[in-house]
Amino acid sequence: MRDGGRLAAAIDVLAEMQTRHKPVRLALKAWGDGARYAGSKDRAFVSGLVLDALRKRRSLAWRMGEDTWRSVGLAVVRFSWDWPAERVAAAAAELHGPGALTEAEAARLASPIPLDDAPPAVRGDYPDWLAPYMARAFGDDASAEGVALAERAPVDVRVNTLKSDPARALKALEPLGAEPLAALPTALRLPAPAAAERTPPLEALPEFAKGWFEVQDLGSQIAAAAAGEVGHKQVLDVCAGGGGKTLALAAAMANTGQLFAYDSDARRLAETATRAQRAGVRNLQVRSPLRPDALAGLEGRMDLVFVDAPCTGSGVWRRHPDAKWRLSEAQLARRMAEQDAVLDAAAPFVKPGGRLVYVTCSLFAEENEDRIAAFLARAPAFGIAAPARRLTPRSDQTDGFFIQPLQR
Q1: Residue 110 belongs to what H/E stretch?
Q2: Could you give the 3-state DSSP secondary structure of residue 51?
Q3: Pick from 181, 270, 258, 249: which is nearest to 217 by CA?
Q4: Could you tell me which of 20, 18, 36, 136 has the C-alpha nearest to residue 72?
Q5: Does domain 218-407 have CATH number 3.40.50.150?
Q6: Ranges of each domain in the chain
Q7: For residue 60, which phi and psi values (nearest 5 degrees)?
Q8: In the 8-state DSSP scheme, what is residue 182?
Q9: Which residues, other chains included, contact 274 with Cβ-Cβ below 8 Å and sequence gap of 6+?
Q10: For 307, phi and psi rounded to 5 degrees?
């Protein structure tokens, strides 16, 4: 495919996503299924352009003076990908391109509207209704935090100490550009791929199949490390999901003690046992919600209960940029109710003197500090065990996370 065809395809995917209310993943899959002629580089190009358009939709539309997917797509390649204006014009006018530039488009691509006078939500690339939530969390830095959340994310790796060590894993990943991170000895980072390129083929490495490492954002690794010393302990992960933090906890336990993994959605637990086997985990029990008594007998016995609560996912907008445009106030309210419910459900499993670690990948105080305050008012047996920590791409070069350790 030529530049014009790729550009037109990306604009069509964005329009399809909005018209049919599809998540971007499904919209891209639908396009790919119907574009058998497209090669791997074409697919990477279209996917990269679509995701970058979603990341910076509002600021790019402002610079173009028009909020359409066509104008945003043109702005991506001009301002985010640094194409010369002549290349954009040539691509648009190609046989299979999106159509020749209008005079207004050509003018804006040459001289965009400055962002200086744009509202914070435009500069930070998030919906207007989220402005008070971002302002409450970050004050005058809200738009700057939004800008960081609109950048492409690197690929972080957690070294699995049950199967390898940081030095050996780093050597295996050096051909892909991996470097160690100071925050954690077991954390490595690969740079974010260029927008039109595929992510590094980590899963193709033989060391991945051997269980030497897992793909896991540094923020998620820090959240798991907040569990503290867990060796020889009884640990319950009540929102285990796909098992990323579960496996991090297992490695920290070094196959001592007992680790229980549970999630209210049985489908999300489906891969946990398989991943644990590859990682060399031998102290894990997966408790399925399909059994009504799945957690019976664990009440009051856990040294640690880890609560990776369901949330809006505002902290991972870098990786899932369509989520910020699909989020609604009703969804936020539902997540807050679910967070209250999961905290109440988790509390009885903590033994006296034990800890509960509450984690979300949300940046909003309504899902974080407010939920903790409400929980402590309902559960006077618990108190703050350590100061809360909020991680963000801007301040910590991680996905966004909130971490609050509690103690009974």
Answers
A1: helix 103-110
A2: helix
A3: 181
A4: 18
A5: yes
A6: 3-114, 119-150, 155-215, 218-407
A7: -70, -40
A8: S
A9: none
A10: -115, 95
- What is the end-to-end Cα distance of the chain in Å, rounded? 61
Annotate 60-81 with b (16+ C-beta within 10 A) or e (fewer): bbbbbebeebbbbbbbbbbbbb
Is pTM, for the whole model, over 0.90? yes
Q: For the domain with range 155-215, which CATH number is right: 3.60.20.10, 3.40.1390.10, 3.30.70.1170, 3.40.50.150?
A: 3.30.70.1170
Side chain identity at residue 63, one-letter code: R
Residues 51 and 25: their CA atoms lie apart, in Å, by: 10
Amino acid found at 330: A
Q: How far apart are CA 406 and CA 408, in angstroms?
A: 7
Enumerate residues 6+ apart whose C-beta is below 8 A from 99.
Answer: 92, 93
Across-strand partners of 260? 236, 285
Query: What are the counts of helices (DSSP H) followed by strands (DSSP E) for the chain?
Result: 19, 12
Active site members? 361
Walk along the chain (408 residues) and give the pLDDT tens digit of each residue: 999 999 999 999 999 998 888 899 999 999 988 888 888 899 999 999 999 999 999 999 999 999 999 999 999 999 999 999 999 999 999 999 999 999 999 999 999 999 999 999 999 999 999 999 999 999 999 999 999 999 999 999 999 999 999 999 999 999 999 999 999 999 999 998 888 888 878 888 999 999 999 999 999 999 999 999 999 999 999 999 989 999 999 999 999 999 999 999 999 898 898 999 999 999 999 999 999 899 999 999 999 999 999 999 999 999 999 999 999 999 999 999 999 999 999 999 999 999 999 999 999 999 999 999 999 999 999 999 999 999 999 999 999 999 999 999
Longest dimension (CA), the chain: 71
